[in-house]
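Table S5 (text form). Sequence records supplied for joint modeling of the two-component complex.
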Amino acid sequence: MHIMKRFALAASAAIVVLTMGAIAMDTAQAADKLKLTIASEGAYPPFNTLSPDGKLEGFDIDIAKALCDQMKADCTFVTQDWDGAIPALQAGKFDAFIAVMSITPEREKQIDFTNKYMSTPPAVVAPKDTDIKGVTKEDLAGKTIGVQGATTFSNFSEKTYPDSSIKSYPTAEEYQLDLANGRLDAAVDDRVVIDNWLKTADGACCKIVGMPKADPAIFGPGMGIAIKKGRPELVKKFNDAIAAIRANGTYKKINDKYFDFDVYGD
Amino acid sequence: MTTVTSSDEAVLRPPALPHRWTRARVAGYFLVGLWLAFFIGLAIYLYGAWNIGLIETYGPKYWSGLKTTLTLVAISFLLGMIISIPVAIAGLSKNRFARRLSGGYVYFFRGTPLLAQVFLIYYGLGSFRPQLQDLGLWGFFRDAWSCAILAFTLNTAAYQAVILRGAIKSVSTGQWEAASALGLSKRVTFWKIILPQALIVALRPYGNELILLLKGSAIVAIITIYDLMGETRRAYAQTFDFQTYLWAAVIYFVIVELIRNLWDWIERRLTRHLIR
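The corresponding structure-token record, covering 542 residues in total, follows.
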């Protein structure tokens, strides 16, 4: 009897706590000014990287700044690990995540995407003295392939190269280290990111061996800006802004600063 | 004899303490309520999110990840235990050089994060490939698994050496003196008299260290080993279902709970002679 009473007391305390939590969450979700916090990864040059003083910079950041100007929004930028980006977005830690995220059906179940703001193909990179001839399943059978974990490239590699051993790394920088020091036979990543790395001193070890056919079921229509579900007005603002900077030449100016071709794709 | 037993009934008990709603009591109920709410919430969430397809797909992967985690922790804990004995003895030695060497080792591995040690051994040494190849060590360092075992062993050996050193010091010098008076050699005294008593003192800290190592092992996925956490991240990346992380938390929780109970049992068994 006594124990029952204690249990009932504890249970009512539990209900009070749960209710308080629910109220706190409701108030936190109110208010929507055009003050945006935009997150990016900061480890994927030339799209997003950290400057020596720790600020985000790169193509993604320049595009985001242009979009903010277009939307007349006051934007602040924060860095966010790739792995935790979707849960952090869902938890409302920031308003948008821009880091070459492919618009895939699985991700669209969790978060919303703007229209694509770019679209680049995958490529396979290997040491210069490699014996890998092509990029088919047979060419890479028995090889060790490095990918960044939780990316379309890791899903693509696991599906396309079942006879290879796939190793997954937290960011692109680590598989690049392992490719350079010979732990990996090859790696799969964004063509532009690989090109950018091959131009650096560390990338001198390696070359692109080929471009596998991008499976649209995995890669989707291109890369978009990720936004928490249930904010269609924000998605629309971003879409309008993307269309506007494409039309008024701002996109081309930023594009030409980084690339000698149009990363928007066709 | 009869007087003793008869007085038993007549003993006056102190009056029961009044049952007051003190601040501490209210706070206690509130906190218990908080925990209860947490566990009820977790149970409701897992019940609502129950998805047999997910379990069928990722269950075997979690199992293989769990085996990787347990193997890694078991091997490095045991190897660390072996290495910790000479380190602890060196730390207690009269020789200043041995003491400094042991102190420096412990200082370094306790003073830096395990994450940094794993990273340095795998990626850091990995960039010295030509030198390692000359020494014939590249075969060892090329492999992520052996790098992980090395890093974890060196780390846990430092902690275990400190535990052991403290435990050996906790055995009173009277034991050494008594053994010496009986004509026992130092070696026999250490292994047969001091160490068994020290290990009773060290048992609890060893349990803590094992639990910390188990939970610390979750970082090993950064060097491409698919342990329980690595499999969890992979499952999450493919499903974006948050319950993947919850299941991992539940599994870690259960293992820690098992270790804790095992340790309770070992302690009861080892200290039978001390119970009066």
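Note: Chain A touches chain B through 35 residues (CB under 8 Å).
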